[in-house]
Amino acid sequence: MTRPPTTREWTARSSGSASTRPKANKAFREKFDFPFRLLSDYDEQVGVAYETRDPGTEKVSFANRLSYLIDPEGNIAKSYKVSEIPAHPAEVLADLYELREQR
Questions:
Q1: Which residues contact 17 (CB under 8 A, 6 or more apart)?
Q2: Looking at residues 17-45, what average pLDDT do you find?
Q3: Dihedral (C-alpha) 7, 22, 73, 1: value to the nearest 10 degrees?
């Protein structure tokens, strides 16, 4: 089996969010050298919308790790409950490859 292309080869984009203030969020991204943008979701509205936290509860210190593969039309093509963080990028790339083959 050949390796799936990287997201850069497909012009796919990655992003993330964290419920921290912008300055802390920037420091976190730089510390771990993330190759994608991180949204500062301090009021946790994105977290509520994407179900990483429950609405109407106290501010969370750790949100659920969920990931979504969103198609070019803006629809969620696949959702993931992330448990194996190091393996997750390869899983998403394989799904990108499969979705691309279906088009």
A1: 38, 39, 40, 41, 46, 47, 50, 52
A2: 83
A3: 20
Q: Which two tokens stand for residue 91?
A: 């899983």
First to last CA, the chain: 20
Mean pLDDT across 79-97? 85
* Residue bearing tokens 């799904």: 95
The answer to whether residues 24 and 46 touch, using CB atoms and an 8 Å cutoff, is no
pLDDT score of 42 more than 80: yes
60 — pLDDT class (breaks 50, 70, 90): low
Q: If you search the block for the tokens 């659920």, which residue do you land on?
A: 64
The pLDDT mean for the chain works out to 78
Residue 39 contacts residue 17 (beta carbons within 8 Å): yes
Name the β-bridge partners of 76: 70
- For the chain, domains (ranges, CATH) are 8-102 (3.40.30.10)
